[in-house]
Design a protein that fits this description.
- The protein is α/β, with parallel strands linked by helices and 288 residues long.
- The protein has 2 domains: 2-52, no CATH class; 72-113 and 126-264, Ribonuclease H-like superfamily/Ribonuclease H (Nucleotidyltransferase, domain 5), CATH 3.30.420.10.
- The chain contains 9 helices and 5 strands.
- The protein has helices spanning 2-9, 25-34, 43-52, 72-86, 157-170, 191-199, 218-228, 238-254, 263-279, and strands at 93-104, 134-141, 147-152, 177-182, 203-207.
- It has a 5-stranded mixed sheet with strand order 3-2-1-4-5, with helices on both faces.
- Strand 2 and strand 3 (147-152) form a beta hairpin.
- Helix 2 (25-34) packs across helix 3.
- The model is unreliable at 281-288 (pLDDT under 50).
C-alpha cells in the first residue's frame, strides 16, 4: 500500500485523470478510496507515509530548463561578468550596472498612512486610487555604490538615452573607459542606442547571459529601493512619486556603498551549473 501511494505521489495528478495541478494528502487519500484501493484512509496516514519517503508533492519549485545546453560560451560570458565586477580597475575605468524599474504607481490612499504607536504597527489604508505610472532608469556604480537615475513616462530607447546622456555629462572626463553592464532587452542595444554609443566611444557595453539578469548589481539596489520606499506606496500623484524617487537617490548617495562580489561566488555558481547539467544534460522542447 505504501509503495502504491509513493508511486502515485511521484506522478502528476493529470496522469491519474485528475483535474489538479498537484497532489496533497487529502486528495491522495480521496483518490485511493475512489479507485477502490482501500475502503478508507486518512490524510494523516498518507502524510506519514510520504514523510517517511521524503516526499512533498504539494510543494513546487520553479526552474528554467535551458533551450540549449549551457556550453563553453555561457561559462565564458559568466566569467567575463565576474571579471568586470571583481577585478581592480585602472584609474581611467568605471563600471556601471544599468536596468529599469517599470510601472511604479503612486497609489494614493483614501486616508493618510498612520505612523506606528506603542503596540500598533504602521497602518496603511487598503484601498487606493490609480494615478498613472512611471519608470525609473537607473545606473549603479559597482565600485563606489553611487546611483544615478531618471524617471520617465515611457520605456523606450529614447528614455534609456536620457540616462546615458546624464551619465556622460556627470561622470568625470578622466574616466575614458566606462563599462556598462545591462541585460539583453532591446532597449539596451537598439539602433538608436548603437548610434549613440558610436558617437561616445568611452562607453563600452557588456551584457549578462540570458536569464541571468540577477547577476547585475543594480538589481540588489532595486531591492533596497523597493523595501525602503515602495513597499506600500502612498503618494498623492505621479509628480510626488517621481520627486521622492530622486530624493531617495540623493539620500542614498550621501552614504553610498558598493556590493562586494567575489570570484569565489561565481566559481560556486559555475560548479552548481556543471553539477546540474551532469544530472540532466539533454535540453527539452519548450512547453507550449
Amino acid at each position: 500500500m505504501t509503495l502504491h501511494v509513493v508511486r502515485l505521489a511521484c506522478d502528476l495528478p493529470a496522469q491519474a485523470g485528475r483535474a489538479l495541478s498537484q497532489w496533497d494528502c487529502a486528495e491522495l487519500a480521496r483518490h485511493l478510496v475512489r479507485d477502490g484501493v482501500v475502503a478508507a484512509i486518512s490524510p494523516q496516514t498518507v502524510h506519514r507515509w510520504l514523510t517517511a519517503h521524503r516526499l512533498k508533492p504539494w510543494r513546487q519549485h520553479v526552474w528554467l530548463h535551458p533551450r540549449s545546453p549551457r556550453d563553453a560560451a555561457f561559462t565564458a560570458q559568466v566569467r567575463a561578468v565576474a571579471d568586470l565586477l571583481t577585478r581592480p580597475l585602472a584609474a581611467h575605468e568605471g563600471v556601471l550596472s544599468l536596468d529599469e524599474m517599470t510601472s511604479l504607481q503612486p497609489r494614493p490612499r483614501r486616508v493618510p498612512t498612520r505612523p506606528a504607536q506603542p503596540g500598533r504597527p504602521v497602518q496603511v489604508e487598503h484601498e487606493y486610487a490609480r494615478a498613472g505610472a512611471t519608470h525609473l532608469f537607473a545606473a549603479f556604480d559597482t565600485r563606489t555604490g553611487q546611483a544615478y537615475g531618471v524617471t520617465t513616462r515611457r520605456k523606450r530607447q529614447v528614455e534609456y538615452l536620457t540616462l546615458l546622456e546624464q551619465l556622460d555629462r556627470g561622470l568625470p572626463a578622466a574616466l575614458t573607459t566606462i563599462h556598462l553592464l545591462a541585460d539583453n532587452v532591446s532597449v539596451h542595444h537598439g539602433r538608436r542606442v548603437q548610434q549613440w554609443l558610436t558617437a561616445h566611444p568611452r562607453f563600452v557595453t557588456h551584457f549578462t547571459p540570458v536569464h541571468c539578469s540577477w547577476m547585475n548589481p543594480v538589481e540588489q539596489w532595486f531591492s533596497i529601493l523597493r523595501r525602503k520606499l515602495l513597499r506600500s506606496p502612498n503618494f498623492p500623484d505621479l509628480a510626488a512619486l517621481q520627486q521622492t524617487l530622486h530624493q531617495f537617490l540623493a539620500e542614498w548617495n550621501e552614504r553610498a556603498h558598493p556590493f562586494r562580489w567575489t570570484t569565489a561566488s561565481f566559481d560556486q555558481l559555475l560548479a552548481k551549473l556543471d553539477a546540474a547539467l551532469a544530472v540532466d544534460p539533454a535540453p527539452r522542447a519548450a512547453a507550449a
